[in-house]
């Protein structure tokens, strides 16, 4: 399904009758309406960041629901699309934290290739209807993904912005890992503790301390 080592890690899910039934429901939604991201981008986060490469996890909620925006990576939009407010605030914090100037585009593919798993809790959405696929079953898969990352021998940084992402904390029990939490970068909450939280430098300090190559956050 993915084309890398995630297939082995998720084999028990992929082969289950329940998951096959769930995917048929999602396929039906694609056939009957407009659903984002495009079908070939649903598992983009896993395709771009193999299990063995995961150093950091940034949890999002569900895909952007506007035309041409979502491409399977949390907080990321395709090049040529206006940068959403939450991502603008992420760029502001990145500049404040590490002095990296904001990119002129919102495509975070380079972060994914650096080892940052940009995972949404829900992987599809109906056009113009945020959270419309919440509760359908994606959460069972993404919870399982967090559980198998928790089993990694190598230390991993989990960046959880906002209450929705913090719901995953219960699956992160391995003391080797680092959990960074703050309010969501949305304009509604960024001033309540997201700005000044320094997630990017804290991540790299932790990776370096554990003899892991730090993330090059520059896009």
3D architecture notes:
This protein is α/β, with parallel strands linked by helices. It is built from 9 helices and 6 strands; from the N terminus they run αααβαβααββαβαβα. A 4-stranded parallel β-sheet has the order 3-2-5-6. Helix 8 links the parallel strand 5 and strand 6 (178-182). The radius of gyration is 17 Å and the shape is globular.
Main β sheet profile? 4 strands, parallel
Low-confidence residue ranges: none
Strand arrangement across the biggest beta sheet: 3-2-5-6
Radius of gyration (Å) = 17 Å
Q: What distance separates the N and C termini?
A: 28 Å
Order of helices and strands: HHHEHEHHEEHEHEH
Counting H and I runs of at least 4 residues, what is the number of helices? 9
**Helix amount:** 25-40%
The shape, in one word, is: globular
Mean pLDDT: 97
Going by helix content, strand content and strand pairing, the class is alpha/beta
The total beta strand count reads 6
Our estimate of the beta-strand percent is 5-15%
What attributes does this structure have?
single chain; 219 residues; alpha/beta; two-stranded antiparallel ribbon; globular
């Amino acid at each position: 399904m993915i084309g890398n080592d995630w297939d082995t890690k998720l084999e028990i899910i992929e082969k289950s009758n329940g998951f096959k039934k769930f995917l048929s429901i999602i396929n039906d939604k694609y056939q009957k309406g407009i659903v984002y991201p495009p079908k070939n981008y649903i598992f983009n986060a896993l395709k771009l960041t193999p299990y063995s490469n995961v150093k950091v996890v940034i949890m999002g909620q569900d895909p952007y629901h506007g035309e041409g925006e979502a491409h399977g990576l949390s907080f990321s939009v395709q090049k040529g699309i206006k940068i959403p407010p939450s991502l603008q605030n992420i760029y502001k914090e990145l500049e404040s934290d590490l002095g990296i100037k904001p990119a002129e585009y919102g495509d975070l593919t380079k972060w994914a290739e650096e080892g940052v798993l940009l995972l949404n809790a829900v992987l599809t959405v109906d056009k113009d209807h945020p959270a419309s696929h919440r509760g359908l079953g994606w959460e069972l898969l993404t919870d399982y993904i967090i559980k198998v990352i928790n089993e990694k021998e190598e230390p991993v940084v989990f960046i959880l912005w906002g209450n929705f992402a913090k719901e995953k904390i219960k699956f992160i029990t391995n003391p080797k890992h680092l959990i960074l939490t703050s309010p969501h970068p949305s304009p509604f909450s960024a001033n309540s503790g997201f700005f000044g939280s320094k997630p990017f430098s804290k991540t790299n300090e932790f990776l370096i301390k554990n003899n892991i190559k730090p993330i090059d956050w520059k896009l």
